[in-house]
Amino acid sequence: MSFETLGLAAGLLRAVGEQGYTEPTPIQSQAIPPVLQGRDVMACAQTGTGKTAAFTLPLLQRLMTTRAGPGGSRRPRALVLAPTRELAAQVGESLRDYGRHLPLQYAVIFGGVKIRAQVMRLRRGVDIVVATPGRLLDHVTRGTVDLSGVEVVVLDEADRMLDMGFIEAIRRILDLMPPRGTRQSLLFSATFSPQIRRLANGLLSNPVCLEIARDVGAAQRIDQVVHPVARSRKRALLSHMIGSRDWRQVLVFTRTRRGADRLARQLAQDGLQATAIHGDKSQGARSRALADFKQGRLRVLVATDIAARGLDIDHLPHVVNYELPQVPEDYVHRIGRTGRAGRTGEAVSLVSDDEHGQLRNIERVLRRRLPREVLEGYER
Q: What is the pTM of this model?
């Protein structure tokens, strides 16, 4: 199947080609046609499967082929809700790349930055708003955004939004839009948990349900290894591996924000250029850290799971699980930052005795046992 067979307009096909894509991913080939038909869609797909384009491409086409209602020149016609600043920014980049040949306007709004520029952008009038829930409600309170004309709403990574406690904010936002059945609603999630299904029941009307199989094959392309090590020796082992193996670009995952800050400081004391990225950092600090990391000025980026959602880094060679995640699916999300687009990558997990339960759950999801390798001098 090609993008041409999905029914996309010439301007979108041109933009897709300019991005170097020729064949749609499974989520794109299954989601784009029903979205173009105006159907509600509930899709289960992981980060890294191409799901952002699966809704931005047909969303752009729908807005081009349907006329705005009264007052629509100033009111947004589509809303994309995302759980984190990084993911909202990634959706914005997708709209920029695929909508470059279309006359549609969009705004990306999230917290951690000054609100004035966002207010001015909204007042000029936009077709699409991409937002995190908290900052969107700030604009609603200020009267700088009117959601009563929204024709299409997208909840991206809905499971993560529920994990972050956004359910009440989401309900308030949905109450500000035209009712279910009079708007098109799309929900994307990495899991179809009972909570997600309850949310979908209140959001969607007779939806097309899509479940893209977890891409365990992608995980198989990544060289994965477990290094058993005492918790107190993890930091020394990590510094040793980065230095002795001359790793130049390493994404390291911790479970907590405080742990990320502490580890970044310790690695810096060991002489490695390192910084942390998490929800307590300002947007400017997060953007600078990510830019420095992508351009090679920063050797180690220490991240929490939430901050890492939406990070899109080409050619990332190394991912390290300094601490295993509590949710086994998050392991797949983490290591999926490397080995993209058919490339190989390396994922290393430093596992202490108290993490064996999490490791077993991860191996159950992967349907394989990960190789163990005890490094000399770091035996438990």
A: 0.67
